[in-house]
Amino acid sequence: MPNIKSAKKRVLVIEKKTMRNKAIKSALKTQVKKFLAAVEAGNKEEATKLFPATVSAIDSAVTKGVLHKNNANNRKAKLAKKLNSLN
């Protein structure tokens, strides 16, 4: 445990940031799982509906600094490829 006041504050701030990042990551994973479940089921309508929301969640994670932009683009490309494979 830190003894210096500023170090104590950093610990508290980092805990808050960690919780925020976990929540964002968890929501993102849930959204991606919903999309992938629709793709696995072969439900094209549902997957088409969920795709924009999933991409939006990924972009939101990038904006908030949880994902790197290249990682996000890679994920979006993979999801788009899966959606197109339903055709």
Structural commentary:
By secondary structure, the chain is mainly alpha-helical. Helix content is 84%, strand content 0%. Helix 2 (44-63) runs antiparallel to helix 3 (69-85). The termini are far apart.
Summarize the structure.
The chain is mainly alpha-helical and 87 residues long. Helices cover 84% and strands 0% of the residues.
Q: What keyword list fits this structure?
A:
84% helix; single chain; elongated; Methane Monooxygenase Hydroxylase, Chain G, domain 1; mainly alpha
Topology:
Layout: H1 5-40, H2 44-63, H3 69-85
User: Which H/E pattern describes the elements?
Assistant: HHH
| CATH architecture level-2 label | Up-down Bundle
CATH superfamily (homologous) name: Ribosomal protein S20
Overall number of strands: 0
Given as residue ranges, the uncertain stretches (5+ residues, pLDDT < 50) are: none
Largest sheet: none
Under the CATH scheme, which class? Answer: Mainly Alpha
Question: Between the first and last Cα atoms, what is the distance in angstroms?
Answer: 57 Å
Helix content: over 70%
Number of DSSP helical runs = 3
Q: Tally the structural domains.
A: 1
Molecular shape: elongated
Report the β-strand fraction as a percent range.
under 5%
Q: How would you classify the helix and strand content by structural class?
A: mainly alpha
